[in-house]
Amino acid sequence: MERYYRPEDLQKFDEIGKEAPELANKFFDYYNAVFEEGELTEREKALIALAVAHTVQCPYCIDAFTQACLEKGSNPAEMTEAVHVATAIRGGASLVHGVQMRTVAEKLSM
Amino acid sequence: MGQFSLERAGEGSGQGIMDIDPFHLTLSKHGFELKREVATTLQINVGFLCNQACRHCHLNAGPGRNESMSSETMDEVVSYARRCNFETIDITGGAPELNPNLGNLIRKVSALAPKIMLRSNLTALYDGKRDRLIDILKGHRVAIVASFPSLNESQVDSQRGSGVFHASLTALKELNKAGYGQEDSGLELNLVSNPTGAFLPPSQTQTEKRFRDVLERKWGIVFSNVFNLANAPLGRFWHWLLHSGNEEKYMKKLVSCFNPSTIEGLMCKTFVSVSWDGFLFDCDFNLATGLFMGGVERHVSEMPGPPEPGNSIEVADHCYACTAGAGFSCAGAIEH
């Protein structure tokens, strides 16, 4: 395999249903329902998805939800802020574990 | 599979051909044939001269263009409108404000149709030289359809030119002061939002809700409606698609989003578009490509009346821009 990630593979996502169609159908039905307008707008959901895509660092998701955000009416400033939210939570999650480190260190230290 | 070429996009070189189904084939696959219905709207394109050179413009309008409708051609268009009883007369450009005869045209056509619309880029309307024109627009209850693609400065300026975002906000505030967009004023102010890149527009209902909230909260601006339009792969926008390497992805997106239920509401069925020099087209996009109504170069002065219902409509691959997703007409999304 030349590259692990190929942009054209994103278009083949539904091929995952060839081996286990019932599970795939359940997943895609759920997936599509999640992104329909509910208490949150489709635009807001796409921004959340974009932030999460950066957290899970999935290039397919980043590609798909960058386009989705633009098509739902978000602008690059809003999208950049969403990525900062993801970054803050990721960074915060690391930093807050520093408390655990300090607790362990304190117990071991004089 | 068919081919979409630069020639079809009005660029003329014939290079960069890509494989997509031609629009007419997609129509026939779905059992459609585009036929004219009773014509309700006359769109008058008074010229390609514009004070802006927007990157999504399908007509390549700009400051360097000198095509402008003469008063003689205007009189021929007015006579045609008198022969036809249109419901709406829709004046566009370029920047129609830059045609010195625009005021006279409005005065003459205002008695000929219940609704008169002027498409404005806002900056030409408030360039400091149009006080008399604004009085005429108000006096004749002309609806203003203003380009305002985004609530974001960098997106607007990137599409329309540096400083346009703030100039547009100033113009919208002035229009509000003049009564435009205010409830019960009878002065309609509609905003047109085209995507600021190679992607499709959002839901029109959602855009309108958001624009209403943000424009009023941040700048105290009110308006009547938002119309979302997809960018047609023609003119300067096509050129930008090519240079940014987005042409194939964008065309394939339009083709993959073909929505058969948009066909019934397509504007070209009830539309007559007349160019600055008086020739007739099924729509402004066909005007941009020189695709004459009925395939015949016919002048407005030679038309005895509205085009016959049942006549075929000229189509090309740029028509995919009007049938993608929710579909798009000059009055925004076809499906809400």
State mean pLDDT of chain A (0 to 100 scale): 94
Structural class of chain A: mainly alpha
Oligomer: heterodimer
**N→C terminal distance of chain A:** 54 Å
Q: What is the C-level CATH assignment of the largest domain in chain A?
A: Mainly Alpha
Sheet of most strands of chain B: 8 strands, mixed
**CATH architecture group name of the largest domain in chain A:** Up-down Bundle
Count up the helices of chain A: 4
**Domain tally of chain A:** 2
Low-confidence stretches of chain A: none
Largest chain interface and its two residue counts?
A-B, 13 and 16 residues
Radius of gyration of chain A from the CA trace? Answer: 19 Å
At the fold tier of CATH, the topology name of the largest domain in chain A is AhpD-like
Strand order of the largest sheet of chain B: 8-7-6-5-4-3-9-10
Cα(first) to Cα(last) distance of chain B is: 31 Å
- Inertia-based shape of chain B: globular
Tally of contiguous helical segments of chain B: 11
CATH fold field value of chain B: TIM Barrel
Please write the string of helix (H) and strand (E) elements of chain B.
EEHEHEHEHEHHEHEHHEEHHEE
Indicate the structural class of chain B.
Answer: alpha/beta
